[in-house]
Amino acid sequence: MPYSIRKIDLFVEDVIAASALLRDAFEFAEIVAEEGFAELQGGPITLMLSKDARIPMPLSAGVTIHLEVSDVEAAAAHAKANGAETLLPIEQTPWGTTSALFRGPAGLVLDLYSESTDRG
Q: How far, in Å, CA of 41 to CA of 36, rounded?
């Protein structure tokens, strides 16, 4: 039976601030934002932010969310103007993308990228 990833739940200390950053800087559609839980839509994936888990677990870390955009420069400028911290400025990667990395909530990294037309 094939499985489909539809939702990802990330554990963060400040749900409201994390949701606001993802909404404002990265244009996720905020569905609900409450003190202990938020749900945002990012394309076909729903991103849930939770303060508490049903089982004990650490905050999310070591995760990169790759956001495909048509214009990396415009998306990066928008993210910076709305409070996102640049980790790595726009660059051409060896694997053929244009990419900029930003710090997200709870140790997340957000990669704004597009496929490069020049792969040479």
A: 17
Residue 51's pLDDT is: 87
Bridge partners (DSSP) of residue 67 are 112
Phi-psi label, residue 83: left if phi above 0, alpha if psi -120 to 50, beta otherwise: left
Q: CATH code for 7-52+59-115?
A: 3.10.180.10
For residue 105, the model assigns a pLDDT of 86
Please state the domain extents for the chain: 7-52+59-115
Q: Are 115 and 97 in contact (CB under 8 A)?
A: yes
What is the pTM (predicted TM-score) of this model? Answer: 0.79
Determine the pLDDT at residue 37: 93
